[in-house]
Structure formats: structure tokens, C-alpha cells
Design brief:
By secondary structure, the protein is α/β, with parallel strands linked by helices. The strands form two sheets. Strands 1-4-5-6-7-8-9 form a seven-stranded parallel β-sheet. Strands 2-3 form a two-stranded antiparallel ribbon. Bound molecules: coproporphyrinogen I (1CP).
Length: 346
């Protein structure tokens, strides 16, 4: 069966499926002992630039779980590193930028990305597509707001103070940062599509910090520019945390699938997005730390509510927590398949 016929791609396109497809954000990574083993002695950004490691780490969760898609192992800051921004991913912290971007002169450091800046991305994807066979590979990138937040703050941030100060106080500067980031993101995604990914996910993880009217003015046009440029080449997923009040607009950007965190039930999310959108989500990743019976009950409820959407891809409401027992994820992937097939036959 070619990747084109997969339940994951069919659900993204809102076509009928025999069971609900499932994958997990951050399905690779620190919850897996085999990940910790292969990463030993290799810095995160170095791993992201080493095709053999990318292939191995991407395959690890596919070997363990009956997931319906793999996600390319990388990080949202990889294209920024590739254009020469001095940054590192610090263990236990996340991306840290040596010299945050706060003025006009600094914006010129956001030069365009070319595919030649990220040869390891193309190489790894080409290898993965061969290894995965019928399982589709999801490519991804960070959206302009979330990337801008790391660049402007200099690292992870709770309140996004400097970011919002620029957005509200120096809108011309803000728009030039977001426009440069949109262009970098378009090239990063197109490079992945050209190398063979079957779908893409654009992460605007922290955009839930922005009020709906400000999202419309300061963020929406740049995200829409990215999805317009990608067009209909592959299904496009868009996700952010705490975006209950933005779900409609996230759909209007041109995404085919809107990712939902655990705060909004899927039937309510289905009412908030425009017609013609599939939904992805939305089990609270912390529920996996509870006994299996709780996971099962919550998952059954999500599958029921997901049936009110035009298409449903099961996922967590955000990434797998590092303390998650992989056995819970293995059971969860199987349960999503059997229970959704049972519900469909009811
Ligand atoms: O050494 C390590 O293992 C570092 C931990 C780690 C990992 C495993 C980081 C640092 N990034 C990643 C991989 C990664 N990053 C993946 C692939 C894994 C998979 O899904 O299988 C993906 C999709 C990302 C994307 C990413 N990076 C996002 C968007 C997704 C999300 O979780 O919201 C964000 C916001 C980042 C930034 C980042 N990179 C790393 C960390 C710890 C963070 C978050 C920092 C913060 O809290 O602001």
C-alpha cells in the first residue's frame, strides 16, 4: 500500500477511514531509552545535522508503536542555525540565542534560507521515505510567531515580554521579522516536500499568548503566506497550545487540519473551525501518567467527540512528556485503532 493510501493522509483529506489514525507529537525523544542511548555524547543540534541519527531516531517510535505516521526528527530552530544565527539547544532548557534580535540592524541577520543550507535534512528524508515504506512521513517547521519569540526573547519565555513589546511598539520592525521568518519557513518546508515528506505540520506552539484581534493583525498574514506558498502539494497541519480562541483563524490560514490542545473538546473545536477542516488531537499528555483505565476512558471520549469532525487524526494535546512510560503509548496506539473501528461499526 503506497503512503498515499494511508489512513493518516485520508483522514487529513477528510476521506472515510476504517479506523482513526494516530501519531504522537514528540513520539521520538526523551521518553524512549533507545533515544537516550543513541543521543549519548551528541549535542541536540549536532544530532539534527547527522542524517544517520535522524533516520534512526525517527524510526524508533515506529518500531515500538502502531503509529500511522512518522515525524521527521529535527527542531524548529534548525533553519535559523542553518542561516548562521548563533544559537544552541541547551539540555533541560531549549533553544538559547546568543544575541537576541531586537532592532533593525539585527533583522538583516535573518537572511534567506536555501536548500543547500540544510543538505542533511534532504538526505535524511530521502533515506527515511525508503525505510518507512507505506508509513507517511510528516515534515515540520516552526511558525513565524513562535520562532520570533525565541529570537527576540533569546530563549524560552513565559510572558513573551520583548516579543510583544516589539509587536505593539514597533510594528514595522515586527512585520519585517515575521516576513523574513515566513520566507525561511517556506524554503524549509519546500525542501522537505521536495525530499519526499507526505504531509507537513506548522507548529505555532506559543501563539496562544496572543489575543484574537492581535492574531488577525500581527500573525495571521504571515502564517497564511506560508500555507499559500505550499498550496495543495501535501496536507498541511497547524497546531498551537492554548489556542481555543484562535481555532477558527488557525483554520482560515489555509491549513487542512487544525491541531487542538486538551483544553477544548473536539466537538466544540469542530464548531469553531471553518467548514472543510479535519481536526487533530487531543489527549492531555499528562493523562498518560495515570493508570491505563483512565487513559482508555479519556481516549474513548475523544474518539466519540472526534466523530463530529469532518476528519480526525488522534494525537496528544501537546508533546509526549519525558516521564511517560512507552508501554502506555504502545497500548494507546492499539486502542485508538480497535476502539475507533468498533465505534464506526456501532
Ligand atoms: O536533547 C534533547 O533531547 C532536547 C529535547 C528536544 C527534542 C527531543 C528539543 C529541544 N527538541 C526536540 C525534537 C523536536 N522538536 C521534535 C521532534 C520530536 C518528535 O516529535 O518526535 C519536534 C517536532 C520539535 C519541535 C519544537 N521545538 C517545538 C514545537 C513543538 C512543541 O513541542 O510545541 C518547539 C516549541 C521547540 C523548541 C524546543 N526545542 C527543544 C525544547 C526543549 C524546546 C521547547 C523549549 C520551551 O519550552 O520553550
Amino acid at each position: 500500500m503506497p503512503a498515499e493510501e494511508s489512513t493518516f493522509l485520508r483522514a487529513c483529506r477528510r476521506q472515510p477511514v476504517p479506523h482513526t489514525p494516530v501519531w504522537f507529537m514528540r513520539q521520538a525523544g526523551r521518553s524512549l531509552p533507545e533515544y537516550l542511548r543513541v543521543r549519548e555524547g551528541t549535542a541536540m543540534l549536532e544530532a539534527c545535522a547527522t542524517p544517520d541519527l535522524i533516520v534512526e531516531i525517527t524510526m524508533q517510535p515506529v518500531r515500538r508503536y502502531a503509529v500511522d505516521a512518522a515525524i521527521f526528527f529535527s527542531d524548529i530552530v534548525v533553519p535559523l542555525k542553518a542561516i548562521g544565527i548563533d544559537l544552541d539547544i541547551k539540555p533541560g532548557v531549549g533553544p538559547v540565542i546568543a544575541d537576541p534580535i531586537r532592532d533593525r540592524a539585527a533583522v538583516s541577520r535573518l537572511r534567506p534560507l536555501t536548500p543547500d543550507d540544510v543538505p542533511y535534512v534532504s538526505d535524511a528524508i530521502k533515506g527515511l521515505v525508503g525505510e518507512l515504506g507505506h508509513i507517511p512521513l510528516i515534515g515540520f517547521a516552526g511558525a513565524p510567531f513562535t520562532l520570533a519569540s525565541y529570537l527576540i526573547e533569546g530563549g524560552p519565555s513565559k510572558n513573551h515580554d520583548h516579543t510583544k513589546a516589539m509587536m505593539y511598539g514597533a510594528p514595522d520592525l515586527w512585520f519585517s521579522v515575521l516576513d523574513a521568518l515566513a520566507d525561511i519557513t517556506i524554503t524549509f518546508l519546500q525542501t522537505q516536500i521536495d525530499a519526499g515528506v507526505s504531509a507537513i505540520q506548522l507548529f505555532d506552539s506559543w501563539v496562544g499568548a496572543v489575543a484574537p484581534e492581535d492574531y488577525r493583525e500581527f500573525v495571521f498574514p504571515h502564517t497564511k503566506k506560508i500555507f499559500d506558498a505550499i498550496g495543495d502539494q501535501v496536507p498541511k497541519i497547524h497546531f498551537g497550545v492554548g489556542t481555543g480562541e484562535l481555532l477558527g483563524q488557525l483554520g482560515e490560514t489555509g491549513a487542512d487540519v487544525v491541531g487542538v490542545d486538551w483544553r477544548v473538546p473536539l466537538d466544540e473545536a469542530a464548531r469553531r473551525v471553518p467548514a472543510g477542516k479535519a481536526l487533530q488531537g487531543n489527549l492531555d499528555p499528562a493523562i498518560l501518567l495515570a493508570p491505563w483505565e483512565v487513559v482508555e476512558e479519556r481516549t474513548r471520549e475523544i474518539l466519540r467527540r472526534g466523530r463530529t469532525a469532518e476528519g480526525h487524526v488522534f494525537n496528544l494535546g501537546h508533546g509526549v512528556l519525558p516521564s511517560t512510560d512507552p508501554e502506555q503509548l504502545r497500548r494507546l496506539a492499539d486502542f485508538v485503532h480497535t476502539e475507533s473501528a468498533r465505534l464506526a461499526a456501532e
